[in-house]
TrEMBL record:
GO terms under biological process: alpha-amino acid metabolic process
CDD domains on file: AAT_like
Species, as recorded: Cacopsylla melanoneura
Gene3D superfamilies reported for this sequence: Type I PLP-dependent aspartate aminotransferase-like (Major domain) (3.40.640.10)
The protein, known as: Kynurenine/alpha-aminoadipate aminotransferase, mitochondrial
Record keywords: Aminotransferase, Pyridoxal phosphate, Transferase
SUPFAM superfamilies, per database record: PLP-dependent transferases (SSF53383)
Occurrences of domain Aminotransferase class I/classII large (ranges): 124-333
One annotated GO molecular function: pyridoxal phosphate binding
Pfam families: Aminotran_1_2 (PF00155)
The protein's required cofactors: pyridoxal 5'-phosphate
Amino acid sequence: MAVALSRKLGRQVKEALKTVEVFINSTQPTQDSTNWDKIRVKLNELNMNLNEIIKKLDQDIATDGRGGDDNVKTSGVIADYRMFMTRVSKNRNPSALRELATLYYSMPDSLFLGVGTPNSDLYPFESVLVNLKDGTTLEMSGERLKMVLSYLPSAGYGPLQTLFKDFQDKFHGLQDWDVKDVLVTSGAQEGTALTINMLLGLGDPLLVQNPVYPGFAEIIRPMEVDAIPVNVDGDGMIPEHLIQVLEERSNLRDKAMPKAIYINPTASNPTGTLLTDDRKKQIYRIAQQYDLIILEDDPYYFVHFRDRDPVSFLSMDTDHRVIRFDSFSKTLSAGL
Protein backbone atom coordinates (compact mmCIF):
# COMPACT_ATOMS: atom_id res chain seq x y z
CA MET A 1 0.00 0.00 0.00
CA ALA A 2 1.09 3.57 -0.50
CA VAL A 3 2.81 5.20 2.43
CA ALA A 4 0.14 7.89 2.80
CA LEU A 5 -2.56 5.29 3.35
CA SER A 6 -0.35 3.46 5.86
CA ARG A 7 0.26 6.72 7.73
CA LYS A 8 -3.46 7.43 7.87
CA LEU A 9 -4.17 3.93 9.18
CA GLY A 10 -1.43 4.31 11.79
CA ARG A 11 -3.00 7.51 13.09
CA GLN A 12 -6.42 5.87 13.28
CA VAL A 13 -4.96 3.02 15.35
CA LYS A 14 -3.20 5.58 17.55
CA GLU A 15 -6.48 7.41 18.16
CA ALA A 16 -8.15 4.10 19.06
CA LEU A 17 -5.38 3.32 21.55
CA LYS A 18 -5.78 6.76 23.07
CA THR A 19 -9.51 6.12 23.55
CA VAL A 20 -8.74 2.83 25.31
CA GLU A 21 -6.14 4.58 27.49
CA VAL A 22 -8.65 7.24 28.54
CA PHE A 23 -11.14 4.52 29.44
CA ILE A 24 -8.58 2.65 31.54
CA ASN A 25 -7.42 5.78 33.35
CA SER A 26 -11.00 6.75 34.15
CA THR A 27 -11.91 3.29 35.45
CA GLN A 28 -11.11 2.29 39.01
CA PRO A 29 -10.07 -1.36 39.28
CA THR A 30 -11.99 -3.32 41.91
CA GLN A 31 -9.10 -5.70 42.52
CA ASP A 32 -5.30 -5.59 42.38
CA SER A 33 -4.19 -2.81 40.01
CA THR A 34 -1.06 -4.67 38.86
CA ASN A 35 -2.66 -5.87 35.61
CA TRP A 36 -3.99 -2.39 34.87
CA ASP A 37 -0.52 -0.94 35.32
CA LYS A 38 0.87 -3.52 32.90
CA ILE A 39 -1.79 -2.56 30.36
CA ARG A 40 -0.86 1.12 30.71
CA VAL A 41 2.83 0.31 30.14
CA LYS A 42 1.97 -1.74 27.06
CA LEU A 43 -0.20 1.09 25.69
CA ASN A 44 2.66 3.54 26.15
CA GLU A 45 4.98 1.19 24.25
CA LEU A 46 2.47 0.85 21.42
CA ASN A 47 2.07 4.63 21.24
CA MET A 48 5.84 5.10 21.05
CA ASN A 49 6.13 2.49 18.28
CA LEU A 50 3.30 4.07 16.32
CA ASN A 51 4.90 7.50 16.65
CA GLU A 52 8.13 6.12 15.19
CA ILE A 53 6.26 4.42 12.33
CA ILE A 54 4.30 7.57 11.49
CA LYS A 55 7.49 9.63 11.61
CA LYS A 56 9.18 7.22 9.19
CA LEU A 57 6.18 7.28 6.85
CA ASP A 58 6.19 11.08 6.89
CA GLN A 59 9.84 11.00 5.85
CA ASP A 60 9.06 8.54 3.04
CA ILE A 61 6.29 10.77 1.73
CA ALA A 62 8.55 13.81 1.83
CA THR A 63 11.19 11.86 -0.10
CA ASP A 64 8.67 10.72 -2.70
CA GLY A 65 7.26 14.23 -3.08
CA ARG A 66 3.72 12.90 -2.84
CA GLY A 67 2.12 15.43 -0.54
CA GLY A 68 -0.53 14.69 2.07
CA ASP A 69 -3.16 12.00 2.39
CA ASP A 70 -5.76 13.78 0.30
CA ASN A 71 -3.36 14.31 -2.61
CA VAL A 72 -2.42 10.69 -3.11
CA LYS A 73 -4.32 8.15 -5.15
CA THR A 74 -3.30 4.83 -3.65
CA SER A 75 -3.55 1.38 -5.17
CA GLY A 76 -2.34 -2.10 -4.39
CA VAL A 77 -2.22 -5.37 -6.27
CA ILE A 78 -4.47 -5.20 -9.31
CA ALA A 79 -7.23 -7.75 -8.84
CA ASP A 80 -9.39 -6.96 -11.86
CA TYR A 81 -7.88 -5.83 -15.16
CA ARG A 82 -11.24 -5.24 -16.79
CA MET A 83 -11.17 -1.64 -15.59
CA PHE A 84 -8.19 -1.09 -17.91
CA MET A 85 -9.68 -2.85 -20.94
CA THR A 86 -11.78 -1.45 -23.74
CA ARG A 87 -15.40 -2.43 -24.18
CA VAL A 88 -14.45 -4.52 -27.21
CA SER A 89 -11.79 -6.40 -25.22
CA LYS A 90 -14.21 -7.06 -22.39
CA ASN A 91 -16.57 -8.71 -24.87
CA ARG A 92 -13.92 -11.15 -26.07
CA ASN A 93 -13.92 -14.77 -24.94
CA PRO A 94 -11.42 -17.56 -25.56
CA SER A 95 -11.96 -19.28 -28.90
CA ALA A 96 -14.12 -22.34 -28.30
CA LEU A 97 -12.38 -24.19 -31.13
CA ARG A 98 -8.94 -23.38 -29.70
CA GLU A 99 -10.06 -24.57 -26.29
CA LEU A 100 -11.23 -27.82 -27.87
CA ALA A 101 -7.84 -28.14 -29.54
CA THR A 102 -6.17 -27.80 -26.14
CA LEU A 103 -8.36 -30.60 -24.82
CA TYR A 104 -7.52 -32.72 -27.86
CA TYR A 105 -3.77 -32.38 -27.30
CA SER A 106 -4.22 -33.61 -23.74
CA MET A 107 -5.66 -36.89 -25.10
CA PRO A 108 -3.13 -38.20 -27.65
CA ASP A 109 -5.15 -41.33 -28.55
CA SER A 110 -8.30 -39.40 -29.42
CA LEU A 111 -9.69 -38.76 -32.90
CA PHE A 112 -10.49 -35.08 -33.26
CA LEU A 113 -13.05 -33.99 -35.86
CA GLY A 114 -13.17 -30.29 -34.98
CA VAL A 115 -11.46 -27.08 -36.23
CA GLY A 116 -10.45 -28.67 -39.53
CA THR A 117 -7.29 -30.14 -38.02
CA PRO A 118 -5.33 -31.97 -40.74
CA ASN A 119 -3.80 -35.39 -40.20
CA SER A 120 -0.26 -34.65 -39.01
CA ASP A 121 0.96 -37.97 -40.49
CA LEU A 122 0.43 -36.44 -43.92
CA TYR A 123 2.73 -33.45 -43.34
CA PRO A 124 5.63 -33.54 -45.85
CA PHE A 125 8.27 -32.75 -43.20
CA GLU A 126 10.37 -35.53 -41.70
CA SER A 127 12.66 -33.41 -39.52
CA VAL A 128 14.05 -29.91 -39.06
CA LEU A 129 17.80 -29.56 -38.56
CA VAL A 130 19.64 -26.38 -37.51
CA ASN A 131 23.43 -26.15 -37.32
CA LEU A 132 24.78 -23.33 -35.14
CA LYS A 133 28.09 -21.52 -35.60
CA ASP A 134 29.44 -22.97 -32.35
CA GLY A 135 29.03 -26.48 -33.73
CA THR A 136 25.80 -27.27 -31.89
CA THR A 137 23.14 -29.14 -33.85
CA LEU A 138 19.45 -28.77 -33.07
CA GLU A 139 16.99 -31.28 -34.46
CA MET A 140 13.23 -31.60 -34.21
CA SER A 141 11.37 -34.64 -35.50
CA GLY A 142 8.70 -37.18 -34.68
CA GLU A 143 5.71 -36.31 -32.53
CA ARG A 144 7.25 -33.07 -31.35
CA LEU A 145 7.56 -31.79 -34.91
CA LYS A 146 4.01 -32.88 -35.69
CA MET A 147 2.83 -30.92 -32.66
CA VAL A 148 4.52 -27.63 -33.54
CA LEU A 149 3.34 -27.87 -37.16
CA SER A 150 -0.29 -28.30 -36.08
CA TYR A 151 -2.85 -25.85 -34.73
CA LEU A 152 -1.73 -24.80 -31.25
CA PRO A 153 -3.43 -23.12 -28.28
CA SER A 154 -3.70 -19.35 -28.71
CA ALA A 155 -0.97 -18.65 -26.14
CA GLY A 156 1.57 -20.75 -28.04
CA TYR A 157 3.42 -24.05 -27.83
CA GLY A 158 3.30 -25.26 -24.22
CA PRO A 159 6.96 -26.31 -23.78
CA LEU A 160 8.08 -23.03 -25.38
CA GLN A 161 5.90 -21.09 -22.95
CA THR A 162 7.49 -22.97 -20.06
CA LEU A 163 10.94 -22.14 -21.41
CA PHE A 164 10.03 -18.45 -21.62
CA LYS A 165 8.64 -18.48 -18.07
CA ASP A 166 11.91 -19.96 -16.81
CA PHE A 167 13.69 -17.23 -18.79
CA GLN A 168 11.69 -14.51 -17.03
CA ASP A 169 12.30 -16.10 -13.63
CA LYS A 170 16.04 -16.20 -14.27
CA PHE A 171 16.49 -12.60 -15.39
CA HIS A 172 13.62 -10.77 -13.66
CA GLY A 173 13.04 -12.71 -10.45
CA LEU A 174 10.53 -15.43 -9.67
CA GLN A 175 7.12 -14.53 -11.08
CA ASP A 176 3.70 -15.59 -9.82
CA TRP A 177 2.59 -17.73 -12.76
CA ASP A 178 -0.72 -18.45 -11.06
CA VAL A 179 -1.80 -14.93 -12.00
CA LYS A 180 0.63 -14.13 -14.83
CA ASP A 181 1.26 -15.75 -18.18
CA VAL A 182 3.41 -15.62 -21.30
CA LEU A 183 2.02 -15.02 -24.77
CA VAL A 184 4.19 -15.94 -27.76
CA THR A 185 3.92 -13.37 -30.56
CA SER A 186 5.76 -12.59 -33.79
CA GLY A 187 8.15 -10.16 -32.15
CA ALA A 188 7.69 -7.55 -29.45
CA GLN A 189 6.02 -5.09 -31.81
CA GLU A 190 3.10 -7.44 -32.43
CA GLY A 191 2.82 -7.82 -28.67
CA THR A 192 2.63 -4.06 -28.17
CA ALA A 193 0.04 -3.75 -30.95
CA LEU A 194 -2.17 -6.42 -29.39
CA THR A 195 -1.85 -4.80 -25.98
CA ILE A 196 -2.71 -1.33 -27.26
CA ASN A 197 -5.83 -2.74 -28.91
CA MET A 198 -6.75 -4.37 -25.60
CA LEU A 199 -6.26 -1.23 -23.48
CA LEU A 200 -7.12 1.73 -25.70
CA GLY A 201 -10.13 2.80 -27.68
CA LEU A 202 -10.29 5.43 -30.39
CA GLY A 203 -8.81 8.69 -29.05
CA ASP A 204 -7.91 7.36 -25.60
CA PRO A 205 -4.95 8.96 -23.77
CA LEU A 206 -1.57 7.26 -23.34
CA LEU A 207 1.64 8.46 -21.70
CA VAL A 208 4.65 8.05 -23.99
CA GLN A 209 8.31 8.96 -23.76
CA ASN A 210 9.34 11.93 -25.87
CA PRO A 211 10.71 11.21 -28.43
CA VAL A 212 8.92 7.92 -28.86
CA TYR A 213 9.92 4.85 -30.88
CA PRO A 214 8.72 5.53 -34.47
CA GLY A 215 7.41 1.97 -34.86
CA PHE A 216 5.21 2.42 -31.81
CA ALA A 217 4.01 5.78 -33.11
CA GLU A 218 2.75 3.97 -36.22
CA ILE A 219 0.87 1.47 -34.04
CA ILE A 220 -1.11 4.13 -32.19
CA ARG A 221 -1.58 6.56 -35.11
CA PRO A 222 -4.61 4.82 -36.74
CA MET A 223 -6.32 4.75 -33.35
CA GLU A 224 -5.94 8.53 -32.98
CA VAL A 225 -4.46 7.96 -29.54
CA ASP A 226 -4.08 11.09 -27.42
CA ALA A 227 -0.33 10.65 -26.89
CA ILE A 228 0.84 12.59 -23.82
CA PRO A 229 4.61 13.19 -24.14
CA VAL A 230 6.94 12.84 -21.17
CA ASN A 231 10.40 14.31 -21.64
CA VAL A 232 13.64 12.32 -21.42
CA ASP A 233 17.26 13.28 -20.84
CA GLY A 234 20.52 11.35 -20.77
CA ASP A 235 19.18 9.07 -18.02
CA GLY A 236 15.86 8.30 -19.69
CA MET A 237 12.35 9.41 -18.77
CA ILE A 238 12.26 12.23 -16.21
CA PRO A 239 10.06 11.28 -13.21
CA GLU A 240 9.53 14.90 -12.18
CA HIS A 241 8.15 15.75 -15.60
CA LEU A 242 5.92 12.68 -15.49
CA ILE A 243 4.39 13.91 -12.22
CA GLN A 244 3.98 17.41 -13.68
CA VAL A 245 2.23 16.04 -16.76
CA LEU A 246 -0.13 13.92 -14.67
CA GLU A 247 -0.96 16.77 -12.30
CA GLU A 248 -1.68 19.10 -15.22
CA ARG A 249 -3.83 16.44 -16.86
CA SER A 250 -5.84 15.89 -13.68
CA ASN A 251 -6.84 19.57 -13.73
CA LEU A 252 -8.38 19.29 -17.20
CA ARG A 253 -12.04 18.49 -16.59
CA ASP A 254 -12.74 17.62 -20.22
CA LYS A 255 -9.80 15.20 -20.54
CA ALA A 256 -9.66 11.60 -19.36
CA MET A 257 -6.72 10.45 -17.28
CA PRO A 258 -4.37 7.95 -18.93
CA LYS A 259 -4.42 4.38 -17.69
CA ALA A 260 -1.09 3.26 -19.15
CA ILE A 261 2.43 4.48 -19.85
CA TYR A 262 4.68 3.25 -22.66
CA ILE A 263 8.41 3.07 -21.90
CA ASN A 264 11.35 1.77 -23.94
CA PRO A 265 13.88 1.64 -21.06
CA THR A 266 17.06 0.02 -22.45
CA ALA A 267 18.91 1.56 -25.41
CA SER A 268 15.75 3.54 -26.02
CA ASN A 269 14.84 4.04 -29.66
CA PRO A 270 15.59 6.66 -31.02
CA THR A 271 17.65 8.32 -28.24
CA GLY A 272 19.75 5.33 -27.15
CA THR A 273 19.36 6.28 -23.48
CA LEU A 274 19.30 3.79 -20.60
CA LEU A 275 16.68 4.48 -17.95
CA THR A 276 18.45 4.35 -14.58
CA ASP A 277 17.41 1.91 -11.87
CA ASP A 278 16.59 4.75 -9.48
CA ARG A 279 14.32 6.43 -12.01
CA LYS A 280 12.57 3.13 -12.67
CA LYS A 281 11.75 2.89 -8.97
CA GLN A 282 10.42 6.45 -8.98
CA ILE A 283 8.33 5.85 -12.09
CA TYR A 284 6.94 2.63 -10.64
CA ARG A 285 5.85 4.50 -7.50
CA ILE A 286 4.18 7.13 -9.68
CA ALA A 287 2.41 4.35 -11.59
CA GLN A 288 1.13 3.03 -8.26
CA GLN A 289 0.02 6.49 -7.24
CA TYR A 290 -1.94 7.10 -10.46
CA ASP A 291 -2.90 3.45 -11.04
CA LEU A 292 -1.12 3.08 -14.39
CA ILE A 293 -0.27 -0.02 -16.38
CA ILE A 294 3.41 0.06 -17.40
CA LEU A 295 4.11 -1.14 -20.93
CA GLU A 296 7.78 -2.16 -20.74
CA ASP A 297 8.98 -2.53 -24.34
CA ASP A 298 12.50 -3.88 -23.82
CA PRO A 299 13.90 -5.66 -26.92
CA TYR A 300 17.39 -4.23 -26.25
CA TYR A 301 17.56 -5.53 -22.67
CA PHE A 302 20.77 -7.50 -23.33
CA VAL A 303 22.31 -4.85 -25.60
CA HIS A 304 24.16 -2.52 -23.24
CA PHE A 305 27.65 -1.71 -21.96
CA ARG A 306 27.07 -2.20 -18.24
CA ASP A 307 28.71 -4.78 -16.00
CA ARG A 308 25.30 -6.22 -15.15
CA ASP A 309 21.88 -6.38 -16.75
CA PRO A 310 19.51 -3.51 -15.92
CA VAL A 311 16.84 -3.82 -13.25
CA SER A 312 13.57 -4.27 -15.10
CA PHE A 313 10.16 -2.91 -14.18
CA LEU A 314 8.96 -6.51 -14.13
CA SER A 315 11.48 -7.40 -11.42
CA MET A 316 10.02 -4.74 -9.10
CA ASP A 317 6.39 -5.37 -10.00
CA THR A 318 4.63 -6.00 -6.69
CA ASP A 319 1.22 -4.92 -8.02
CA HIS A 320 1.09 -6.94 -11.27
CA ARG A 321 0.87 -3.70 -13.27
CA VAL A 322 3.74 -4.36 -15.72
CA ILE A 323 3.24 -5.85 -19.17
CA ARG A 324 6.69 -6.70 -20.50
CA PHE A 325 7.65 -7.17 -24.15
CA ASP A 326 10.78 -9.22 -24.85
CA SER A 327 12.31 -10.13 -28.18
CA PHE A 328 15.03 -12.31 -29.65
CA SER A 329 15.27 -10.11 -32.74
CA LYS A 330 18.32 -8.24 -31.39
CA THR A 331 20.17 -11.28 -30.05
CA LEU A 332 19.31 -14.30 -32.25
CA SER A 333 17.68 -13.24 -35.49
CA ALA A 334 15.50 -10.36 -36.60
CA GLY A 335 13.29 -12.60 -38.73
CA LEU A 336 13.17 -15.67 -36.49
